[in-house]
Write a structure and sequence with these properties.
Elements (H helix, E strand, L loop, with lengths): L5 H5 L4 H19 L8 H6 L1 H5 L7 H19 L13 E4 L2 E4 L15 H10 L6 E2 L17 H18 L16 H13 L12 H12 L9 H15 L9 E5 L4 E3 H8 L21 E9 L10 H8 L4 E8 L2 E9 L2 E5 L5 E2 L19 E4 L6 E8 L2 H10 L17 E3 L45
Parallel strand pairs: 3-10, 4-6, 5-13
Antiparallel strand pairs: 1-2, 1-8, 6-12, 7-8, 7-12, 8-9, 9-11
């Protein structure tokens, strides 16, 4: 399978190949636009054998009224646009997904070299894909919900982390969105940008395989969760893995990417190798595309963690900041208690985040040239590390096997708190394979802890089985 890299996007030789890809997607959108509104659950039934033999129980009238009242209240509550701005220290560096910026630096007009000043930081931040609460989208299967306001924040945070992985995969970390207009040489990149946003559109459609509808459907298939139920960072990481695997049925180019989830705070190397290795008879449909690694598929590595008891243990502050300083980091899903956020940077004792708690109108991504403005945020916001919930999931994007090996070496510096080198690492690498089934996350014993997690909270992080990993509740 061909890999669409950032450099191949810019190559003139690939222009026609991308146009063919866009034409195929346009045909899919055209055919889907006539069917998605008539049969909003057809895609779920297609991928869910249970749906063929078991019908979802319809909500009762009382539940219907309660759902509508709650949705109306949350739509009003989260539609307010708060204009408060976060203030950043001028003499401290700011890190954003592995890039460092200095607010005190001035732009040097005498050179064409980029300057990592505050304006460059805002440009980088604004280019990240922002996925928030939406309202008035097609009803979620098995409910009367037409909005995820008040309960879908962790799902939205997971979407943003996955979106950043896809941006790195198809466009590269250096990509920036030019909101004012698209120049001729940027049209191919903008087409891929729109394609990524479309995948997360709020429709139960094959053209939107990473939508809130698909995530809620997968949560029901895997764990019996219903629309309106809360999720934790750990459960969302498995939903990300499952919906991305399903998405390859509609978009084969996503088959160049694999998701691996660390079991019990341990990255098992044999499992990673098995997940990312390409089969010998692997064929590339387009020789024109650049192949980064002909033996290895790109990897999204997700590591669910619990760093403390009821509150974040400040011992691990340096670990989180160190991980966000790595080039391979695609962010952290977590947040304040019962208030999920997507962390992408830091300064001093604050984490910079994208907040999903802003309710916006649904955007129909199946129409040509749909508006992109609501998918990008201008206002930088920050949260004190003292307020951060200890349950989180850290994500990394590793393009090739060589990148994975480099990451293994570089990340070691940030796995143990700097204050006390005798503490347990927040996660480890191990030879061999995991003794647990990868898809049995919803059946794990809630009280099951690994040896590291059985220590006091100051000694080591808890594992995936810890019930604190799923403590984001319905607001």
């Amino acid at each position: 399978m061909a890999f669409l890299s950032r450099r191949s996007v810019a190559c003139e030789s690939n222009r026609h190949s991308y146009q063919d890809l866009s034409l195929a997607h346009s045909q899919l959108l055209l055919s889907d636009s006539h069917s998605s509104s008539d049969s909003p659950i057809s895609h779920d039934a297609e991928h869910c054998p249970q749906n063929k033999t078991e019908k979802t129980k319809e909500p009762e009238d009382g539940d219907r009224v309660k759902t509508k009242l709650m949705s109306m209240w949350n739509n009003v509550r989260y539609s307010w646009n708060f204009k408060s701005k976060a203030h950043f220290a001028k003499d401290s560096p700011i890190w954003l997904l592995g890039r460092i910026y200095h607010q005190s630096l001035k732009t040097d007009d005498s050179t064409s070299l980029p300057t990592n000043n505050f304006e460059s930081l805002k440009y980088d931040f604004h280019s990240r894909i922002w996925l928030t609460y939406r309202k008035e989208f097609p009803v979620l299967n098995g409910s009367y919900y037409t909005s995820d306001c008040g309960w879908g924040c962790m799902l939205r945070s997971g979407q943003m982390l996955l979106a950043q992985a896809l941006v790195c995969h198809f466009l590269g970390r250096d990509w920036r969105w030019n909101e004012s207009g698209v120049q001729e040489e940027q049209t191919l990149q903008e087409s891929l940008h729109r394609m990524i946003v479309q995948w997360f559109g709020d429709k139960p459609s094959p053209a939107c395989p990473l939508s809130i509808h698909q995530m809620v459907s997968q949560g029901h298939i895997s764990a019996g969760k219903r629309p309106g139920d809360w999720y934790g960072p750990s459960s969302v990481s498995y939903i990300i893995k499952q919906i991305l695997e399903r998405a390859t049925d509609t978009y084969p180019e996503l088959d160049t990417l694999r998701v691996y989830i660390a079991q019990d705070c341990t990255v098992y190397l044999d499992d990673v190798k098995q997940s990312c290795s390409k089969t010998r008879d692997y064929e590339y449909e387009d020789a024109e595309y650049e192949v980064i690694d002909d033996q290895w598929k790109s990897l999204v590595l997700l590591i669910p963690l619990r760093l403390g008891g009821e509150r974040m243990n400040p011992t691990y502050d340096s670990c989180l900041k160190g991980l966000l300083s790595l080039e391979q980091c695609i962010g952290i899903i977590g947040g304040k208690p019962k208030h999920s956020q997507y962390f992408i940077g830091w300064q001093d004792d604050y984490l910079i985040h994208l907040d999903p708690h802003h309710c916006q109108e649904m955007v129909d991504v199946l129409i040509p040239n749909f508006q992109l403005k609501s998918f990008h945020c201008h206002e930088l916001r920050k949260t004190s590390l003292k307020q951060v919930d200890p349950s989180c999931c850290v994500g990394f994007y590793l393009r090739s096997q060589r990148d994975f090996e480099d990451f293994r070496r570089n990340v070691q510096h940030y796995l143990v708190p700097t204050q006390n080198k005798g503490d347990y690492p927040i996660f480890v690498f191990s030879n061999g394979s995991s003794p647990h089934l990868d898809d049995a996350w919803f059946n794990q014993d809630e009280d099951c802890l690994s040896p590291a997690a059985s220590q006091p909270p100051s000694s080591g992080p808890a594992t995936v089985g810890d019930n604190y990993l799923d403590d984001f509740e319905f607001l």
